[in-house]
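G., before I forget:
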Amino acid sequence: MGRDEFIFLLIGLKWTVVLSVVGFVCGSIGGLAIALLRTCGVPYLERLTAFYIGIFQGTPLLMQLFVVYYGLALVGLKLDAWIAVAIGLTLHASAYLGEIWRGSIEAVPRGQTEAAKALSIKYVSRMKDVILPQAIRISLPATVGFLVQLIKGTSLAAIVGFTELTRAGNIISNQIFEPLTVFGIVGILYFIMCCPLTILGARLERRFAMSAR
Amino acid sequence: MTNVSTTTTADPMIRLQRVEKWYGAFQALHDINMDVRQGERIVLCGPSGSGKSTLIRCINHLESYEKGEIRVGDTLLGHRSRDIDAIRRDVGMVFQQFNLFPHLTVLQNCMLAPIRALGLGKAQAEDRARSLLDRVKILEQAEKYPAQLSGGQQQRVAIARALCMRPKVMLFDEPTSALDPEMVKEVLDTMIGLAEEGMTMICVTHEMGFARQVADRVIFMASGAIVEEAPPATFFSNPRHERTRKFLGEILRH
């Protein structure tokens, strides 16, 4: 495998990173909204978001990407493959992150909400200053774990024809007939992306634990 | 004890009339009628499940109620959030489990509510927080986190945090029940100091010594109803109801 092939892999890697970042950032915004709706106390909103979460947790990501990619085309929206995949990943991530963060919001002891209410602190400030900082610390292991899953999940974009890292590896491998070498390198590239995140997550957990102890 | 004028305003500061509360089919409060005048110190006592915590939690709307009327000052406590927020500004609460915010320092704990709920500037809030932490004699711990403090220290911070809102009434929900015995005194001393300064207080507590020393009235509750109320001298020496006598017999045995 030569220099040009390796650069082709790196371009695929770039798209994997872009998809992961967009999916995680937009998914986080959506996920936070969903987590807040799930805990807002209005029964029909809570049920609605539970249903949304159920759909995305109950179906394969691959199928979700298909539905978004071909569904949007059917409706008349001719989007680039990577935008359609980004939308699919965002919806998927928002459901999972929404559920993770709902759980961690509910794991914050009730006394915290009661103390904040007794001090006349209103909902927005209560969430922003009291509940969410504690919820985020609780959610760190699960959130980092999901982020790693998301990065690996971007490889499914290959199925809708988008050239991210896995598909790039596939293409090169078909050209030079060295699947073990190529996919070995692809695996190492994925590991280089995921491993620092796990380490960063562990470091953040330790830092939060120290300041809370 | 300081001579506090309690009858300049004829209306009571807190008034509960015919208040009833249900949890589903279970009735937690039966026909509660209670008036609290400015400067009064009330001790609520009774066995577990008697509804005493539920009652004071209704006053700042941590619990809702189904029948009757609760008035704090001029405000009727209903379901409108504007009224609830206004009442919560005037009513401070100290919890059995302290409920300090663990991710904030002691000073930040005390500054948060004045900044967010009262709109104070940061410097002003800090000055107020420092002076109140000093009043409960814990200013030297200002930069520590709650987990680094003992239970008694945490509860004193909780009292300072509530006082930073300059409440007109303080509610205490079994403030010393979760403390080791040697720390109970420091918290009770802080509460006695508050009482001597004229703060209107309603305390749910098992500390009968505190009740004898500080209370204007002791109210005994059982099974969600007020059974007896009297000034401490009468209450402890001459309880009228059988149930009160039984309770006092058990609690004063130790």
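Chain A touches chain B at residues 109, 111-112, 114-122, 125, 129-130, 133-134, 137, 211-213 (CB under 8 Å). The mean pLDDT of chain A is 90.

More on Monday.
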